[in-house]
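hey m, so remember when u said the tokens were messed up on ur end? i reran from scratch. heres the input so u can diff it against urs
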Amino acid sequence: MEPQRTYDDDEVREIFAAAAQRKLAHPAATAAPGLTLAELQEIGREAGLDAVEVARAAAALETRALEGPARTSLGMPIEVVRVVPLPRAPRDSEWEQLVGELRATFRARGKVVSQGGLREWANGNLHACVEPSGDGYRLRLGTVKGDARTLNAVGAASFLAGAAGLGSALVGGAPQDVIVPSIIVAWGIGAFGANFLRLPRWADTRRKQMDFIAARITAIMDGEPRTAG
């Protein structure tokens, strides 16, 4: 007999949250290193959750979105990628539902393109593409912060140019000439600071939106209606 799949604490929380369609507290079992699906269903039953919903949530966990390799600029995130394995190609009605979810989630109408086995929704640098992958299909989500590298490059150039001018003024004994270079240095630091503050928030927001879309395509293809809220 094959060993039963067990779930760690984080996966247990995720499964119960998905099964209940909301964040909720549940009895935590930490005595064992992992819980089997049957054990999860028993705990869920005690918490008022349907065993079928627990099983469905556990199945969805196996096909959840995978974070793909993403580009950075000076250590700051400028790209977010999610890849969701799909058991088959979405039907026309399922694809239309997904497009509706994309438009609502990202608040953008976007452009829909279908060609052969490919279906794509794109809005600027943001895209969602259903494409063949190995023996099945996948939903690939991705976006790039288009102005991030430019702002970093301009900031770096400004900082270096200002620092050079500032050094020349100080070495040359002309303190009256440090004002303009100082302003340029400050502008360069400000450009870095702006990216340092905004890019992690932008990336976190996009990750959460893509994780939501990943959950929705799984639910759509399972024939689940969307719940209010």
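this time it looks ok to me. Confidence is low (pLDDT under 50) at residues 22-32. if urs says something different then somethings off w ur setup not the seq
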